[in-house]
């Protein structure tokens, strides 16, 4: 099965090589995650960031938000608790359930990792020419829109 790597954008519009874009975004993402992750896996860090951003949430909601299976979620949450990054509290609306909230230590770790990532990206941007930085600045709203878009699920065969 062959997939197209370039997609025409609009009628007569520019052609975007989707494969190149995917690879470039993946490489940039890996470079931003290359620093010390405070002993966290990328999946643990993503879950911690979700809890930090969304506030206290039920475990099932975290599993759904991160696309994590319940068995994986149990191990992940246990590791985050053992590190002191999150805490479980009784759900005030359901005595049988609990919510997961970020601790001050977890918030500090998130802020440190985000600051390190920002410094790495800023250093990389300094390597670009002024024209390249201007092109990236112009593309930023489009990249933000792509990051927020919810495309229809695709099936990989």
- In which order are the strands of the major sheet placed? 3-5-4
Strand count: 5
| Gross geometry | globular
pLDDT below 50 for ≥5 consecutive residues: which ranges?
A: none
Work out the strand percent.
Answer: 5-15%
- Category from helices, strands and their pairing: alpha+beta
Tell me the span between the first and last alpha carbons: 9 Å
The total count of helices amounts to 6
Kindly report the average pLDDT value.
85
Give a quick account of the main beta sheet: strands, pairing sense, barrel closure.
3 strands, antiparallel
Summarize the helix and strand pattern as letters. EEHHEHHEEHH
Percent range for helical residues?
55-70%
User: Radius of gyration, Cα only, in angstroms?
Assistant: 19 Å
Task: Summarize the model shown.
The protein is 58% helix and 15% strand.
Report on the structure:
This protein has about 160 residues and is α+β, with helices and mostly antiparallel strands. Helices cover about 60% and strands about 15% of the residues. The strands form 2 sheets. A 3-stranded antiparallel beta sheet has the order 3-5-4. It starts with 5 loop residues before the first strand and ends in a 9-residue tail after the last helix. The model has no long low-confidence stretch (mean pLDDT about 85).
Attribute tags:
globular, 157 residues, three-stranded antiparallel β-sheet, alpha+beta, two-stranded antiparallel sheet
Explain the layout of strands and helices:
Blueprint lengths: L5 E3 L6 E3 H16 L8 H13 L2 E2 H8 L3 H13 L3 E6 L2 E9 L1 H22 L4 H19 L9
Antiparallel strand pairs: 1-2, 3-5, 4-5
Helix pairs in contact: 2-4
């Amino acid at each position: 099965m062959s997939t197209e790597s370039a997609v025409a954008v609009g009628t007569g519009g520019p052609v975007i090589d989707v494969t190149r874009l995917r690879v470039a975004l993946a490489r940039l993402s890996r470079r931003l995650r290359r620093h010390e992750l405070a002993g966290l896996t990328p999946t643990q860090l993503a879950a911690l960031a979700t809890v930090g951003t969304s506030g206290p949430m039920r475990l099932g909601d975290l599993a759904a938000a991160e696309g994590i299976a319940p068995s994986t979620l149990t191990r992940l949450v246990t590791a985050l608790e053992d590190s002191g990054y999150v805490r479980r509290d009784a759900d005030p609306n359901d005595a049988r359930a609990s919510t997961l909230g970020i601790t001050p230590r977890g918030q500090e770790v998130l802020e440190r990792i985000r600051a390190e990532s920002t410094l790495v990206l800023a250093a990389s941007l300094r390597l670009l020419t002024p024209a390249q930085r201007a092109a990236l600045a112009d593309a930023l709203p489009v990249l933000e829109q792509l990051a927020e878009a919810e495309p229809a699920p695709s099936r990989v065969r």
